[in-house]
Amino acid sequence: MSINIYKDVKSKVRAIRVGVRNLIKWFPIVWRDRDYDQDYLYEMIHFKLSNMESFFKSKNTYSVEAPQIAEEIREAKDKLNSLINSVYSDKVESLPDEFFTIEEHKWSANRDNPIYQEWKEAHRKAAAQELDDMKEAFKIIAEKSQGWWD
Predict the structure, then answer these.
(1) 147 vs 50, 52, 95, 115, 136, CA distance in Å?
(2) pTM of this structure
(3) Helix-strand-coil percent breakdown of the chain, rounded to 5?
């Protein structure tokens, strides 16, 4: 009976230690979180995936599939990373001020200008690529995350 009590106490102490370590690790992520923007959601998921990837790459796992799991997690994480960092839309330069005018307190753009049309198409393609990355990241998570345990 005393062995069971010792194991229970040891288990609870370990759980507290791991919990406190997680609070410290997650504190900066939670501190920066805001409820008004999806990017914060993506950052939280990205951080969780990074932690899981590190675990499955470590020697602390028992799963023989750990390297494959780590690779699946990395794929989803990389897709989210490009979304978080606006990899595609940041490549599209801002439109020069000469294409915009303010009339009666309203912005208007010269939409007939070929340069504006090119800019608009580049933005459309960037947004489509970011949407594809988001869908792919969540598809990987939806299809494979049930197997990401040790």
Answers:
(1) 16, 12, 46, 49, 17
(2) 0.82
(3) 75, 5, 20
